[in-house]
Amino acid sequence: MSPQQIKEIQTKIGVEADGFWGPISTRACEDYLRQFMPKPNPWPKTDQASLTAFYGKPGDESKRTRIDVTGLGVKYDGKTVNSITCHEKVGPSLQRIIRRLHENGFDAILAKYAGVYNNRPMRGGSTPSLHARAAAIDLWPEKNGNNQHWPTSALMPLEVMEIFSGEGWLSAGAFWSRDAMHFQATQ
User: Fold this and answer.
1) Contact 16, 10 (CB under 8 A)
2) I want to staple 165 with a disulfide (CB 3.0 to 4.6 A). Which of 36, 58, 88, 108 is the partner?
3) Alpha helix locations (H) across 22-136?
4) What is the model's pTM?
5) Is there a contact between 144 and 156 (Cβ–Cβ < 8 Å)?
6) In a structure prediction context, what are the per-residue pLDDT tens digits for the chain, which is 187 residues long?
7) Burial class (CB in 10 A: 0-12, 13-18, 19+), 123
8) Structural domain of residue 99, as residue ranges?
């Protein structure tokens, strides 16, 4: 993002608009997004014991469901997607999120859908990814890659993060300053 766009985000989250994104802006952004989250947050903490207790074992496909996204602008590799497979516990929430993204004009981002369920470890490690539990989604990877710092080089709009936060989901871009394509149903 440009320094001007970063200043606009800083103004919105209530910190000095200097165009420099550092620890103060990161913390303010986390606090800002937490304001949108339901209380109590319905999702588990990120430790493996909490995730397993809530979602079950990674790769367990018995808890998967399909949500209907027909007509909501979701595309994978340029092809229209009419349903997404996800964990049954996140299905209704994810469907509301996708509907809100569509209603708020984020079809260009929905057209860059990159998946939910993928039974694999986190990149660079051996701990199961939230994708292995079908409780995470990736959007617009070309502009929000795993090692791209948000918001200095990754381009995920803060408004998309607000929509996910409204359902209690975390944005990896906002909360870890990288992997802005990744949103997960954890607290």
Assistant:
1) yes
2) 36
3) 23-34, 48-55, 91-103, 107-110
4) 0.95
5) yes
6) 999 999 999 999 999 999 999 999 999 999 999 999 999 999 999 999 999 999 999 999 999 999 999 999 999 999 999 999 999 999 999 999 999 999 999 999 999 999 999 998 687 788 899 999 999 999 999 999 888 999 999 999 999 999 999 999 999 999 988 899 999 999 9
7) exposed
8) 3-184
